[in-house]
Amino acid sequence: MALLSRSFAFCIICQLLLTDAIAATSHDSPERIAFNSTYDRYLRAEREHRWTDALPAVEQSLALGLQTFREDGINIANLRVKLATVLNRTGKTGGGARARSLLGAARPVLEAAYGTDSLEVVDLLIETAVAEHDPTRLIRTVSLLRMAVKNARQGGAEMLAEVNFTAGTALLKLRSSSAAEPFLARSQAQYHEIFGDADLRTAVASQRLGIVRLRKRNPGGALPLLSTALKAFARHPHARAQEVQTLTALVAAIERTGRHDQATPHCVRVAEMLAVDGNAAPWPIVSTPPATPRVPVTDGGAEVVVGFNLDERGMIFNPIIISSTDGRLNAAALRAVRKDRYTPKLAAGTPVKAEGLTRRLQFH
Question: What pTM, to 2 d.p., does this model score?
Answer without folding.
Answer: 0.73
